[in-house]
Amino acid sequence: MKKYNKTLYTLITILIIYTVSFSLFIFYSITNFAFSDFYKRLDLRRNLNAEELLNNKDNSSNWTSSYIKDLDNQNSFIIEFDPHTKKIITEHGFDNALWDHVNKLGESNFKNENIFYSTKYFEKNEKHYIVGVSAENYFYTHHLSYLRQLLFISLLFGVLLVIVISLFTKRSFMKPIYAMINQVENIGSENLHLRLTEPKDNGVLNKLSLTFNNMLNRIETSFETQKNFISNASHELNTPLTSIIGIADVALSKERSTDDYQKSLYKILDAAENLERKTSALLLLARTGYNNNKLNLKPVRIDQIVMDAKMTLMEINTNFRIIIDFTLLPDDSMRLKINGSAPLLQLAISNIISNACKYSEDHTAYIGLGASDDKVIIIIRDEGIGIPEEDMSRIYDPYYRASNTENYLGYGIGLPLSRNIVRMHKGEMSISSILGEGTTVRIVLPSILRF
User: Fold this and answer.
1) Which range, of 60-64, 335-339, 340-344, averages the lowest pLDDT?
2) Domain boundary at 103, 125, 141, which?
3) Does residue 275 sit within a domain?
4) 61/322: higher pLDDT
5) Could you give the CA distance from residue 365 to residue 380 in angstroms, rounded to a whole number?
6) Helix, strand, coil shares of the chain as percentages rounded to 5?
7) Residue 125 neighbours by CB under 8 Å, 6+ apart
């Protein structure tokens, strides 16, 4: 931020220097023009006066002089001087104090206070003369003064305007950045579901917000995946472990026959194999497919992912029944392909199927697959307890569970995790439910034909 302020103040300084320099240039240019133009007019009148004074001609009959009007406070003068001593012999209408400003053998133009002078050396009858004209420059005494005041006021107003606009621009530009900073500061591990507000324009801030939100999607999915694994593991592994411990306790409670010990060992082996299958399946679900926190997207078939999810869930819980309807599958298998991460998509679909089985009395989930020209559609339905209408607005809140799920184990992680994964694949997930009749989840993903 300090670097930004330094840059802004540097630009303001440069603009102010440019404005001042431009104003001075205008004033100098106009002043220089006013001087040179006025001296030219004085030179013309001086030459006319010299012809009249030295040659005793009456210029009133001259057509040129008839169009030339006298200037303000115009005064003509002639000086006779000694070229050797450079001293005045006689003078008419000239201020002797200005003698040092006169070029004795040439032309000279000079100014004394508000009076401008034009003089020139002439020689006649072996006498030496200086003929000159003086006048007041009305433009210099009045208009330039007004121009100077006008430029000063304009310059002062311009500098203030530059400062005000710069500070206003800084405030307008920094306001969304400060708002973004405040939003980022409010996001922590306990509320990773929060997102930055994305500006409506397509500028840099929009891209920054979008990039940061995508990063939050990946981080939240990673956190939720770990929590999802822990919650599933604590629930699914508890039963076989309890069974193994119980069988071992019973077998060791008293002396038994060899056959009894063998039966106990077989039961323990069966429970251990069940535990191994569940552990392998849960570890498979925990693989998020990240590579340095980036999605590893590649063409995958959604029907294969659904089948893999079914097999994994059946290994975790043998009571689950998963029925897949393939009647709506398209003839062209390419329409079932999407650009995605197979482990992540399997995790998302597995969570939804698991919920459908868990909240159904018969532990049955119904899955339908279909495709349009540019989309792949997955519908997962159950005939379970449903979701109360007042809870529908909060079903995606992390750790939130519907009010009718008290008798079911869970942590409220599955749905938010699944929706995040679907969003990361530029898809949409919607849920409809009727209390006591069941819930339907609809997932729409862009087909690879769109890419």
Assistant:
1) 60-64
2) 141
3) no
4) 322
5) 7
6) 55, 20, 25
7) none
Residue written as token pair 């184990």: 409
CA–CA dist 173, 178 (Å, integer): 9
Closest among 172, 197, 198, 171 to 183, alpha carbons compared = 197
Task: Specify the amino acid at residue 437.
Answer: E
Task: Provide the residue count of the chain.
Answer: 451
Tokens of 177: 């950045």
Which residue is associated with the tokens 């002078």? 117
Instruction: Provide the 10 A C-beta neighbour count for residue 16.
Output: 16
pLDDT tens for residues 87-135?
888 888 888 888 888 888 888 888 888 888 999 988 888 888 889 898 8
What are the Cα distances from residue 24, in Å, to 32, 310, 418? 12, 83, 69
Q: State the pLDDT confidence band at 430, using cuts at 50, 70 and 90.
A: very high
Q: pLDDT tier at 289 (50, 70, 90 boundaries)?
A: very low
Residue 195 lies in a domain: no
Cα Rg of the chain (Å, integer):
49
> Does 258 or 233 have the greater pLDDT score?
258
Among candidate residues 120, 141, 162, the one where a domain is terminated: 141
Domain count across the chain:
2
Burial of 443 (0-12, 13-18, 19+ CB in 10 A): buried
Residue type, 258: T
In this predicted structure, the answer to whether residue 288 has a pLDDT above a threshold of 60 is no
Instruction: Report the half-sphere exposure of 38 (CA within 13 A, side-chain side).
Output: 25
Residue 349, domain extent: 294-450
